[in-house]
Amino acid sequence: MSPSPKDAELLAGARTWVEVESKTEDLEGLERLADMIGAEAAALGAEVEVIEGRDGFGPHVVTRYPAAKPSGNGGVLILSHYDTVHPRGTLAEFPFRMEGDTAWGPGIYDMKAGAYLAMRAAADAHAQGTLPQPVTQLFVSDEEVGSPTSRALIERLAEEARYVLVTEPAREGGQIVVARKGVFRYEAKAFGRPAHSGARHQDGRSAIAELCRLVIAFEALTDYASGTTCNVGLIGGGTGANVVPAQAWCEIDIRVENMAEAARIEAFVAAYTALNPDVRLEITGGLNRPPYERTPEIDALFDTAKGIAAEIGFELRGLKTGGGSDGNFTAPIRPTLDGLGVDGAGGHTLDEQIRISSLSERYALMKGMLERLP
Ligand SMILES: [Zn+2]
Does the structure show a pLDDT above 80 at 342? Predict the structure, then answer.
């Protein structure tokens, strides 16, 4: 089966973005792709603003399409990222390829194809004079590491808009995201006292033993019924089997569904102290992304999307996910729908793939939303 003309056209465009490698740390690749995105959007009628990168991160690209008639409102913000998790060189071993209804490539699913089709949807609606309100599409360069240099910009543009549509990939058979967990990141360090494990064991204060108690206590925060999970994913410490360890550290990832659970976690961490008074604990970090909670406004936005999808010919379903995105920043500010990118699988792996026929479906859904959101 060969792709429909619309799918083929969208795929060809998305492929050109996939073939410019743009891992978050790859400044040269990011700058090249930012130039490409800006030039393409400008050629399609957008007003383009490039915000220079800082702190070692790449530039962010803001593209704006005016409404057909002055609307007097802030319109729709489409939120996209153009960085990936794949380092330079990945393309050589994992090149773009297609077979049947599937296309593979680094970053194609998360989220270059979704960002590309949204650009085309906005530009086409603009060219056809069917935009009732302005559309801004923001392409950030640092989402994969938590958006340290784009968060303030994302929040500012969300405040100016009425709705936020995020082009993160669809999942599990094309479902879109209507709620995401909030993400805490902590680093814990324990500082004990070193000693010879044979001759002076009693003088030592084990940082590892203290840190292990912390790991058990933190992991006990997990409560599946309320959607809270704690994972200590990295750990290290000590200098040798025959030395009482003076130092140990671990990295902690905690996810929560709502602000009440977020408050419970914050209180627990603030009150946590070492069991052994001779060992000092240092816990740094906090709520990296607030929870994206489902609200009546989000439900209404979802219903609109569902109606448009039904007209196009597919059933749109919503789901909650534990994964964070930039949608977490905007959901507390404006009604946000996420997962409006392409359908596929294998994000962040060397099996990253999209369902080619979802390109035109998602393009039509995005264009329909931009043309019809009240
Ligand atoms: Zn993503």
Answer: yes
